[in-house]
Amino acid sequence: MRKQSISRIRSLKFNAVMNMILMSSSFIFPLVTVPYVSRVLNPSGMGAVAFAQSIISYFSLAALLGISTYGVRACAQVRDDPKELSRTVEELLIILAASTTLTFAIYMLALEFVPRLAGDKPLFLIFGTALWLASFGVEWFYQAIEQYGYITIRSIAVKLIGLILMFAFVHQAADYRIYGMIVVFTGYGANILNMLRLRTFIRFVPFRELNITRHFKPMASFLVSSVSSGMYAQADMVLLGFLATNHIVGIYQLVAKIKTMLAMAINSVVNVMLPRLSYYAKNSREKYHDLLVKNIDFVLLFASAGIACAALCADAIIDILGGSQYRTAVLPLLCILPALLFVSLNTVLSQYLISSGHERQYAIVNFTGLVSSVIYCLILIPPLGAIGAALSCSLCELTALLIRCWYARDFITTIRKDIQIIPAPTSAATATGIILLIRQTWWPTHALPQIIATGITFTILYTAMLLLLKERTVTTIIHCIRTR
């Protein structure tokens, strides 16, 4: 056992930087690929791939049994004990092998008997490989031992290969299945490396020493919550796929991609906190409290800016990423932007519920979110199409946030005085208003100059307002820069 490799846990600053690089790559690569494939495959081709990707994500959620979340906590809590860590990982892999086999069998039956899926069986078979790759990627293990340097380098390398493959093989609308293969490779190909590298950290123990059943009870809440959470996050796309054409799905998938990219950028630091929060929950309540407060401040700061900038540049963003075929995506984009704030705050509150042992409440919230998402989609999608899907996404995330706040009300009461709620939204609204006034006299006419001008002007105005209102995060950063 290479005990030293596991015990070398990097600082939160290093992990945050690595995760920001990773999230930046997840933001930058789509900026390169989406404009190209959107124009080559057209909305119908993009819609077909997006629908298949959403369907396989549902099956993957069932196969993973919540281990993608539960595994992080379970391994983080025993990461200082190499033997117990190895045992935990092996037990979880055995559970995954059984669940994935059963889920894949059901998936194959669905391809035979569900007309919407059987209509393009080759594409859905391609995405079927993602089911196995997702289950055995053990990403939860590397997150638990905070190997964010490895995760980042590996992911960027796979994305670069995928980028080369895309430009080499996707040239016309009929190549949408090839694009599907590349999507599977870039999304899950790195998981093969995860399994090959696992023996660097894990020494598998004899089967007789395993106790698989000990995971069933704590996993139950994570199963309900993870499946429900993942399903309600994809419900808009899946139900839109069944209720509308591939063309409308293609329009909406561009909106969903933009929302996802922005949310990933906002959550780049927040997502690295769960393993450390789980550790602090058992060892230092003061550090646990401070870390959650910083998370909320960070979310308010960057979500407010992200929503404002995306709203100001909605037409330009759609024009660059999709082109003239996707102009009807502007209004759905504006309707989905509030979800950015709700998603990010939901992430922070979910971290609190998970790391503090409130799995049951976490599960109830996500199940309620799934039910509300289905209801909103069934009401709004038939009359409004892509706009209805966007509205249902924002409403669903707001509903989940309100319920999470209710369950975390005692904790929120204790930290309320430490959270700066006013500065970020106020600064973003002020900066947006000033830019709208400036636009009345002059503004660039082309899309890219519009985005650049908006970004620079907004950053200057936003930062100035934050300093004026003495927002803690920005003033701390400025102070650190000055002292250096």
TrEMBL record:
TM ranges? 12-37, 49-72, 92-111, 123-142, 149-170, 176-198, 219-244, 250-274, 295-318, 330-349, 361-381, 387-407, 419-438, 450-469
Report the InterPro entries cross-referenced here.
Polysacc_synth, PolySynth_Transporter
Q: Which GO terms describe its cellular component?
A: membrane
So which domain of life are we looking at?
A: Bacteria
Which keywords belong to this entry?
Answer: Membrane, Transmembrane, Transmembrane helix
Topology relative to the membrane = Multi-pass membrane protein
The protein's location, in the record's own words, is: Membrane
| Protein name, per record | Polysaccharide biosynthesis protein
